[in-house]
Amino acid sequence: MKLSMMAAPHLRSEDSVRKIMLDVLIALAPAAVWAVVSFGLKALVLIVVCTAGAEVLDFFVMRFIRRKKNFKPDLSGSVTGLLLALNLSVAVEWWQALIGVFVAIVIAKAVFGGLGKNFFNPALVGRVFLLISFPVQMTTWLSPFDMQTTATPMAILKQGGPRVFSLQEMFLGTIPGSLGEVSALLLLLGFGWLLFRKRVSPFIPVAYIGTVVIMAAIFNGVNPGFGSPLYHVFGGGLMLGALFMATDMVTSPMSIKGHVIFGVGCGAVTMIIRLFGGYPEGVSFAILVMNAFVPLIDMGTKPRIFGKPKKVKSNA
């Protein structure tokens, strides 16, 4: 029998970064379309500016700064830009959004070496930078369709006001909030597409949302003013963060055990900020905090190499 010797890798796949990112864009499309329907032309401008701006900037950095002459756009910049746009209030100006794009692509991504080497989710870094730099625009919320300035469900909960939004309104997407967090239904539909395409693991979202539900149930049992579990699940940016940002394969752990630990950590930090912090929302900060722990989580949950014997405890 004739044996052929070839260099690794021996396992090949037809998948590519571009195909994976295209699936993410498809999954986010329903929420993006609903944002335009709900908030109008301004939402469309922000989405186009962020998505196109991020893709162009990513191409410029790779081709002319990192001098990758063979680099072809892989749509990772577009995903970062679209996620950033969906994390913005419609009150944000287009030029402010571009500043967030620059921070996300250049500082949070390119400085660390580009795609696959960044420690923190680029879109969230851009969002937090904008929140610190332009707090008025980033925390001015408008109601869908009538564009009246109002408070979000989580802001109302933080202030101890009456619950003016029903769970149905929060689930379907007729509440004020960032462009992509208003409709839990459409986010779930998009995430279903990623699961169907086997692009993400369900363990992080389940652990993340499950932790929020458990903690909310405990504190709501002590004091109803803390809000019900479903109110915390549907009333803010939890669904967008848990389904599309915490699951980022670059900035999340590699093992299933690591996914669970990461998700639980995200959920715990989110609820600590929501219940006891100064901000009504804590999703962005929670994910970024847990991003920093990913190397440590990977180190502690690294599976045993196949064929390698378990360590035997010494009796000495």
Describe the secondary-structure layout:
Blueprint: H1 17-39, H2 41-65, H3 76-86, H4 94-107, H5 122-133, H6 135-138, E1 141-142, E2 149-150, H7 153-159, H8 167-172, H9 184-196, H10 203-222, H11 229-234, H12 238-245, H13 256-276, H14 283-300
Antiparallel strand pairs: 1-2
Helix pairs in contact: 1-2, 1-3, 1-9, 2-3, 2-4, 3-4, 3-5, 4-5, 5-14, 9-12, 10-12, 10-13, 13-14
Keywords:
single chain, 316 residues, mainly alpha, Ammonium transporter fold, two-stranded antiparallel ribbon, 14 helices, 1% strand, globular, transmembrane helix, translocase, membrane, FMN, transport
Describe this structure in words.
By secondary structure, this protein is mostly helical. The chain has a single domain (18-299), classed as Orthogonal Bundle (Ammonium transporter fold). Helices cover 59% and strands 1% of the residues. A two-stranded antiparallel ribbon has the order 1-2. Helix 1 runs parallel beside helix 3, helix 2 runs parallel beside helix 4 (94-107) and helix 13 runs antiparallel to helix 14. The longest helix is centred in the N-terminal third of the chain and has 25 residues, at 41-65. It is globular and about 75 Å long. It starts with 16 loop residues before the first helix and ends in a 16-residue tail after the last helix.
